[in-house]
Automatic annotation (TrEMBL):
Pfam families: Thioredoxin
Keywords for the protein's UniProt record, in alphabetical order: Disulfide bond, Electron transport, Redox-active center, Transport
Full protein name: Thioredoxin domain-containing protein
InterPro entries in the cross-refs: Thioredoxin_CS, Thioredoxin_domain, Thioredoxin_H-type-like
C-alpha cells in the first residue's frame, strides 16, 4: 500500500516522499509518512519549532478520505506557515493508536508538541477554519 500511496503523491520510488503543491509563488509540502522512523524524525523536528502541524490520518479504502484529499492539497498551498503530513492508518497502526484515531479521515492539529485541535470527518470548512485559528495563535 505504501508504494501505491507514494505513487499518488508523485513519488517514483526514491527516498523523497513528499509532494510539492504549487500555487503561483506559494508552495507547500505535504509529507507522506510511511514508517515509524519517518514519523519520529518529523515529530522531533516539529516539537522544536513553533509551526502548526496538520496531520491527515487516512485510509486508501476510505471514500471520504479520497473526497477531501484535493482540498487538503489546496490548503497546503494556502497555509504555507503550517506543516502538512499524511499518515495511512493501515501502514502505521501504532502511530494511529498513539493519537487515538478511531475514524477516517481524522485531522489532528499540533503545535509545540501538543494537540491543539482535531477534525473528524471530511469537513473542509471546519478544517480550514481551525487551521486559520491556530496559525494566528
Amino acid at each position: 500500500m505504501g508504494n501505491f500511496f507514494s505513487r499518488l503523491l508523485g513519488n517514483t520510488g526514491g527516498a523523497d516522499r513528499t509532494e510539492r503543491a504549487n500555487n503561483g509563488a506559494d508552495s507547500s509540502t505535504i509529507v507522506g509518512i510511511h514508517s515509524t522512523a519517518e514519523w519520529s524524525e518529523n515529530w522531533q523536528s516539529h516539537i522544536q519549532s513553533n509551526k502548526l502541524m496538520v496531520i491527515d490520518f487516512f485510509a486508501l479504502w476510505c471514500g471520504p478520505c479520497r473526497v477531501i484529499e484535493p482540498e487538503f492539497k489546496v490548503m497546503s498551498t494556502q497555509f504555507p506557515g503550517a506543516v502538512f503530513l499524511k499518515i495511512d492508518v493501515d501502514e502505521l497502526p501504532t502511530v494511529t493508536q498513539e493519537w487515538k484515531v478511531e475514524a477516517m479521515p481524522t485531522f489532528v492539529l499540533v503545535k509545540r508538541g501538543r494537540e491543539v485541535d482535531r477534525v473528524v470527518g471530511a469537513n473542509k470548512e471546519e478544517l480550514k477554519k481551525k487551521i486559520q485559528l491556530h496559525l494566528r495563535k
